[in-house]
Amino acid sequence: MTLFPSLPIDDVTFWIIVAVVCGIVEAVSLGITSIWFVIGAIVALVLASFEVPFIVQIVVFLVVSIVLLIYTRPIATKYLKLGKEKTNVDAIAGQNGIVIEKIDNMLGKGQVKIGGQIWSAKSENGEDIPRDTEVMVLDVRGVRVVVKRVEEEE
């Protein structure tokens, strides 16, 4: 069956093109977004090969794609951990360091050495923290870490 009378393309070829285009978009985006439409296009391609009316192919394509997108994307995203990789800055939160220059929030001074790197620092509660005190990084704000004293166990 010729889908578009003015173009030499039938509905099987149309669905192959849709699947390929969606596959290319998926490969470029790396976000598990259009893979569901590739699967929907393949299902519609199978229907087209059995000469099911084109309107039914479109409806099945949309239903299959949307159902897969809604119900399986969250599962795939969870297991593939997309966008969950910590960067170097994110990985610093929770680490301990040593104050190498007194932290004085009023003057905006203070430095902490964390894993061999030196960071500008400020304390979470505004207290001054003397040199050689062990601190834990709570957050990274810009180029400065927010720290608190590590309480020594008695």
Structural summary, described in words:
By secondary structure, the chain is an alpha+beta fold. It has 2 domains: 2-80; 88-149, Nucleic acid-binding proteins (OB fold (Dihydrolipoamide Acetyltransferase, E2P)). The chain has 4 helices and 7 strands. The protein has a 5-stranded mixed beta barrel with strand order 3-4-5-7-6. Strands 1-2 form a two-stranded antiparallel sheet. The chain starts with a strand and ends in a 5-residue tail after the last strand. The model has no long low-confidence stretch (mean pLDDT 85). InterPro entries: Membrane_assoc_protease, NA-bd_OB-fold, NfeD-like_C. Keywords: Membrane, Transmembrane, Transmembrane helix. The chain crosses the membrane at residues 12-42, 54-72.
Query: Quick one: biggest sheet?
Result: 5 strands, mixed, barrel
Main-sheet strand order equals 3-4-5-7-6
Strand content: 25-35%
Mean pLDDT: 85
Uncertain regions spanning at least 5 consecutive residues = none
Membrane topology: Multi-pass membrane protein
Organism: Andreesenia angusta
GO cellular component, one term: plasma membrane
Keywords: Membrane, Transmembrane, Transmembrane helix
